[in-house]
Every structure is written in C-alpha cells, then in structure tokens.
Amino acid sequence: MQVSYQYKLRPKQSQSKVMDSWLDMQRSLFNWFLADRIDGYYQTFIMGEYCDIRTKTERCPLTCSLNKNSNLHNPWKNPDKNGVIKKRSCSLMQDAYLAEIKQARPWYKAIHSNVLQMLVKRLDTAMEGFFKHGRGFPSFKNRSNFRSFQYKPGDVKLDGNKIYLPSIGWMRFYNSRPIPQGFQIRTVTLRKKADGWYTSILIRDDSVPDFPTPREINTLVGLDMGLTKLVHCSDGSDFANPRPSASKENRRTLKIRQRRLSRKNIGSANRKKEAQRVARLHKKHADKRSAYQWFVANKIVSKADAISVEHLNIKGTKAKCKPKPDDVKQGRFLKNGQSAKRGLNRSISDASWGSLIEKIQYAAAKSGKRFFKVDPKNTSRTCSKCGVVDALSRFGEKFVCTSCGHEAQADKQAALNVKIRAIKDNQLVIKKFKKVRRDSAEPKQLTLFETPNPELTGIKRRYRARNSKRGVPGNPPTQLSLWDIGDLA
Ligand SMILES: [Zn+2]
Predict the structure, then answer these.
(1) Rounded to two decimals, what is the model's pTM?
(2) How many whole angstroms from 399 Cα to the centroid of ligand 1?
(3) Are 9 and 132 in a shared domain?
(4) Are residues 77 and 130 in the same domain?
(5) Can you give the residue range of the structural domain that contains 411?
(6) Where are the alpha helices (DSSP H) in 56-112?
(7) pLDDT by residue (tens digit) across 224-258?
C-alpha cells in the first residue's frame, strides 16, 4: 500500500531562504532543459529526420538520443564490462549534462544532486505524459506554477518532530499524524504554498494490500449532489453546503482584499504583501472546503456497504448560455441569462462535487466498500414509486408525481432514484436493510386498512413519542377510512 502524508514544515529563516533560492535555480534549469528538447526536436524536424514517437522508428531528441544536432550530451553510455556500448535515453543525457552545468555555474553545486536528478526526471515524466498518455505538452514555468522539488527515496530521515533534508539540514515540522508501523519513506516532495512550506511524504508497505477485498453488499446508499444542501442521501439525511468561498460574507472579504491589492503600485513591496494576503485567503477557503469534504465523505461511507452517485458532467453544467442574436437589430444580441448563470457557476465551482466524489471513492475503497456511478439522466424527474418520467412532476423543491401522486422532497427523491438505478444496473441483491425506512428499493405498499408492521414503524414511533404533545405514543387505535366519520360524529 502506498499513501502520501502531508505535513507543514517549520523552517528557520535561513532554511526557507535556501529553499527559495533552490526553487529559483531549478526553475531556470527546468526551462532550459525543456527548451533544449524542443530545439533538438525542431532541428531534426527541419532535416526530415523526426520520428514517429509511438513506433520509435526514427531518431527524435524528445524521446530517444540518436540526434546529432542537439545540445544534448553524448548519446552513448560508457562501455560496460563486456565492452558493449548502450544508448542513453534522453533524460540520461540531460542527467549527464548536470556535471557540466555545475562547472559552468558553480552555484548549482549548492543543490543536492538527487534533487537535480529528480528535476530531469520530472521533465521526462511530463514528456512521456504528452507522448504516451495524451496529456498536455509541458509548459515553461514561472514563479507561480513552479513551487516544488523532490528528494529521492532514502534521502530523507524523520526523527520525532524533526525532518532531515540533505544539504538543508534538520528542520522542525508539525508532526500531525504518525507514520504507521512498517511503512517506508519513499519520495519526499517539498512544496511552497501561500502560508509556508509543506512536505508530502510518500510512504509504502508492500505487505499491506492496496485495497481490502470488497465486502458483501447488504446496504446501499444513493447520493444526490446539490447546492442548497451539498449532499442528499437516499436514507433521508443530508449535509449542509457551507460555501467556503461563494458565501456572501466571504466574497465581500475577498473583494475588499482584491481591491486593496489593485490600488497598490505595480512592482512595489506593498503590492507583493497584499498579494500574499489574497493568496492566504484563497488557501484558507480551499483548506476549509477539503476538510469539510473529508468529513462528509467519511460519514457517507460509514452509512452503508456500497455508495452510488451520479456520473456528473460538471463542465457541461457550467457551460455558457447560447448567445441569442437579435433579429431586428443586426449585430446585436438579446439577453440570454448568462449574467445570472455566472453566480450559479460560482456556487457550482465552490461546491466542487468532483473532488467530493473523488474523496468518497477513496474512502470507500479504503474501507472495502463498493462504489457505483450511474447515468444521471432524468434522476430528478423520475418517480421513485411508479417510474414515470415527467418534467411536470417537479416544482422546485417539491416533487408530486403526475401519474401516481407520490409526493416527496425533490432532491431526496433524486437520491432514491440514484440508488434504485445502481441496483438495477449492477443487478444487486440487497439482502437486508440496516435501518428500515421508507427508502427501500421496492417499498411495501400498504392498503388503506392494513396496519403497518410495528417493526417497520419502530423508529418513527419512538421519535413521535418523544415529541408528542399528547404523550400518547403510536397510531390511533382504529384506522379510519377517508369517508368514515366514525365515533367523532
Ligand atoms: Zn409516480
């Protein structure tokens, strides 16, 4: 099992100065290496010798080293014991170049050599991501998007609340969670954030399985993501949406800080300070959001053996409204509701359902629970009782089925549909229900004169007894039909 633990570091002033300077030097080196690879690529491209990277048929400086025209280093390794000369990979060539760089620019000697090698590897991984996995082409870095560097496995030691970083020294950190027994420290990343330096430590123990075997499904909970409430569960419970950055007061604070920033002179020290303040506020909101999402995810996962959510298309929901051209005035446009949508989009971004779903998925896998994604189509328009799809059934928060008259809170009804869909799609057999409420997959329909099973209403009855003004628990003794006036007459 491999997990990463994050800690906040407490560097001395001198240490954070060293780390800042390392970051600057590494950034320029990264950009230089990237430019080198691109140059080499174009030189061979012009000469008609560029290769198809996927088939690796020809030479190409981006992935292989047989390139005469690049600045890259000697493409051949030193002969081994048997005198065989092997080809270097592109990253190995750049690795070999590090020694020359240290001679030409002696200040690079201050950086630990493994850190520089990890930098070359970082560029290589980015290149591979582009050619093999369809990710974006690596970009040149500036101060805002180059904020981390790495040590190799085995470089870093921990002792109590102190961490040993080679070439920087012992540094204190907030030891917020102990590293579990048997786990070994792998790669260690140092990252600069708005409020200081953090470290993320990759730890691994091969004897622990990645995920426990999924358990038998006895209970299932369906989820519906929303804005008034962050999550509605099919068992009737819900989680509030704290809106860490979209709430009115938080937006006001942000606005004031940003206005202060905009009034400072460009390039001044005061502007830098103010920008720090804005960045810290953003980080505070992000931290709050992620802490709350972990809380919600763990609560949800503890509810049932399996969790089902909608497969959301968040990009689609946030898409811009279509422009409405004005037929009368040429070249003019009518209002299309985009200005109102902007606020909604802000709330959607703030809720960040995607990252919440990721956290639920992670928490579920970690505790051996199943996780299903279902098609979100019509979940809020379908009646969970009779299955009829009708847009007219929904009035805002209220749901009244046009076919069978079933009434429910619209979002809870949607969560129920998500649950039912997961059962149908995966042909699950839900054996027993943890808590019997009226959200079972196929609720037992009682006839008018049938008294409900006391077991089924147990929870409800106890609740009513506690809150009842009359102090008389339970249902009235006789069941009246709609038109039967009974003894009251
Ligand atoms: Zn219905």
Answers:
(1) 0.72
(2) 10
(3) yes
(4) yes
(5) 220-239+300-426
(6) 90-104
(7) 998 889 999 998 899 999 988 888 899 999 999 99
